[in-house]
């Protein structure tokens, strides 16, 4: 992504964020008259950030760079969350985004051993672009047989949007899918010049209207923790807590695990799936490169 493209993206991000706010939510008085634009006006954002309307307008138009103090002021004015603030600063090059690495990724040996040992816990390893680098047998039994997906297409976001089974597997597919798009946006900020990421976004934008709409919303999120509900064809209803562990030897590799409280129906469902998986499924994935 060129410098001008990043400035344009920053401007679009600011517009999307101010459209989500109202004068009341930021402590401004309501004018009472009709508003021609959704959310805050440009002059209202400028007022809140203590900058001129002309300066803010040029920021939205991608015509100037913002300083760190201005970015901090906009973070406060637009009530940005931590993920959104990180994305804003990445687009502005403060701090500079890391250069994309072209070399393929291979699973770290310690993560490989951990995957093999997690026989009762579904787990996968995600790399750059949310590519799926490795998995254990229980993750394959719970989500899909990743080994049947061509290596170059083993991507979690692509799977969510292109595999019809995912729309029935996840009880709240819309929330899961929209969160995936927001997480992919954060990846795009880290690696703006990654051609495979750009190709992925282009592919999904062409083939899925919802992806295209959500990508245009400029929402951002990091891969962290949460809860997902699944309707599994064999194990039934599962409510799982998921967590993310980052490899210190390669911060671009993250171990995602799903767990359940012992004694719950979900815990018993995982035990059933684990028994089923060890009866015929492979114990872990082959090495993958991305």
From TrEMBL:
Any one GO molecular-function label of the UniProt entry: DNA binding
Domain (HTH cro/C1-type): residue spans on this chain: 39-84
Entries under SUPFAM superfamilies matching the protein: lambda repressor-like DNA-binding domains
Classification via InterPro entries: Cro/C1-type_HTH, Lambda_DNA-bd_dom_sf, MLTR_LBD
Coiled coil start-end: none
Domain of life: Bacteria
PANTHER family according to UniProt: BLL4672 PROTEIN (PTHR35010:SF2), BLL4672 PROTEIN-RELATED (PTHR35010)
Protein name (Swiss-Prot/TrEMBL): Transcriptional regulator
Organism: Streptomyces niveus (Streptomyces spheroides)
Biological classification of the source: Bacteria, Bacillati, Actinomycetota, Actinomycetes, Kitasatosporales
């Amino acid at each position: 992504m060129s410098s001008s493209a990043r400035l344009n993206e920053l401007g679009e991000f600011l517009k999307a964020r101010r459209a989500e706010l109202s004068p009341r939510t930021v402590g401004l008085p309501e004018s009472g008259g009709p508003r021609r634009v959704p959310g805050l006006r440009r002059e209202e954002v400028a007022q809140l950030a203590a900058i001129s309307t002309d300066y803010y307008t040029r920021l939205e138009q991608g015509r100037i760079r913002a300083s760190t103090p201005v970015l901090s002021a906009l973070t406060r004015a637009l009530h940005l969350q931590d993920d959104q603030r990180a994305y804003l600063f990445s687009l502005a090059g403060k701090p500079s985004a890391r250069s994309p690495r072209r070399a393929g990724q291979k699973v770290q040996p310690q993560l490989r051993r951990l995957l093999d040992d997690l026989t009762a816990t579904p787990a996968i390893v995600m790399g750059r672009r949310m590519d799926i680098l490795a998995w254990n047998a229980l993750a394959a039994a719970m989500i899909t047989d990743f080994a049947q997906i061509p290596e170059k297409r083993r991507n979690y976001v692509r799977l969510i949007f292109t595999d019809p089974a995912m729309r029935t597997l996840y009880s709240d597919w819309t929330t899961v899918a929209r969160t995936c798009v927001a997480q992919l946006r954060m990846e795009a900020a880290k690696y703006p010049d990654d051609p495979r990421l750009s190709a992925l976004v282009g592919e999904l934008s062409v083939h899925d209207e919802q992806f295209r709409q959500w990508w245009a919303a400029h929402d951002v999120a990091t891969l962290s923790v949460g809860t997902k509900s699944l309707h599994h064809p064999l194990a039934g209803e599962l409510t799982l807590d998921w967590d993310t562990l980052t490899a210190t030897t390669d911060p671009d590799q993250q171990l995602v695990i799903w767990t359940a409280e012992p004694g719950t129906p979900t815990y018993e469902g995982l035990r059933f799936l684990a028994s089923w998986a060890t009866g015929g499924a492979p114990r872990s994935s082959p090495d993958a490169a991305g």
